[in-house]
Amino acid sequence: MLLRVAGGLLIALAGALLAVWAHIPLPWMLGALLVTAATRIAGLGTACPRPARNAGQWVIGTSLGLYFTPQVIGHIGANAGPIVAGMLFALGLAFMGTAMLRRYTDVDFKTAWFSSAIGGASEMASLAERHGARIDRVATAHSVRVLLVVVTVPFIFQWWGVAGLDPTVPGPRDVHGAGLVALVALTCVGGLAFMKLRLPNPWVLGPMLIAMLLTSNRVELSGLPEFVPKVGQLFIGWSLGDRYRPDFFRAAPRFMAVVAAFTVGALALAFGLGALLSLWSAAPIPTLILGTTPGGIAEMAITAKVLQLGVPVVTAFHVSRMVFVVLVTGPIYAFLARRQRNSA
């Protein structure tokens, strides 16, 4: 097992360094993701242990929390309306994806619904299992969606040339040894508490909440060393790429094609919604688009951070959307299922 993990890490690192050399956007995440996924699909038996993904998520969560100074929180409050619009947009996408999967594939309603909900992949898989949906299809749908969003959006934004349009400087930037130790300890306690309480995305949201509470109250223990965000991106990319298996493209190709078409449509709608929300918000259009894209919190936050596109606003959009979707997806499914049974 140790050799499989070491081999996986070396492959992910090689992919990241190759991406840095090729000047592709988000090289430490995308390079690790693409090369790891390619080798796993090719049949190479490497492995990424769960603690590596947790560590990557901890880095992202902690670094995000350090952006939430009192001034930034006020700026987020000014975007409350657009953030609510983004939450409702995500719910609308779930109905759109469900309709497409029901129309063009053979999956049942419950599988189509949980495959289309724009929430965390693990949370949606857990809900799917609880309600008797096909977990393999649900997991595949979210893998395809996240992969497409993570790969396409940074290239679109790089081609667009909008990097640095909405920079936000994190609170504490200087690294202090004792303060860094205290920051690591406190944020890890936050992650463990979220995990113990079985809350969604514990190693992103737990550390982020602790770092945010500290920063918003002007308690600046330490910044993170410059290399740490790169390591976090590497681990996130490695763990995403490790999900893929040799039979990935052979399993339900029609289902995956419809999920891909849904994702492309959702991205197009997100670009349109971002442009509309700019009439309501002072945030730049690229920031609003990134806030409404159907990607994961960690991946979209990394994109915002590297491209300097309003990290706190994008984070607020995605955290609010994820919490909202996780809370309402199950009850809405139960309501719709009852209506179907009553009308049958």
Automatic annotation (TrEMBL):
Q: Does the keyword Membrane apply?
A: yes
Q: Which residues cross the membrane?
A: 72-95, 144-163, 175-195, 255-280, 316-336
InterPro entries per record: AbrB_dup, AbrB_fam
Give any Pfam family that matches: AbrB
**Which keywords, in A-to-Z order, does the entry hold?**
Membrane, Transmembrane, Transmembrane helix
From the Swiss-Prot or TrEMBL record, give the protein name: AbrB family transcriptional regulator
Q: Which organism is it from?
A: Achromobacter seleniivolatilans
**Species classification:** Bacteria, Pseudomonadati, Pseudomonadota, Betaproteobacteria, Burkholderiales
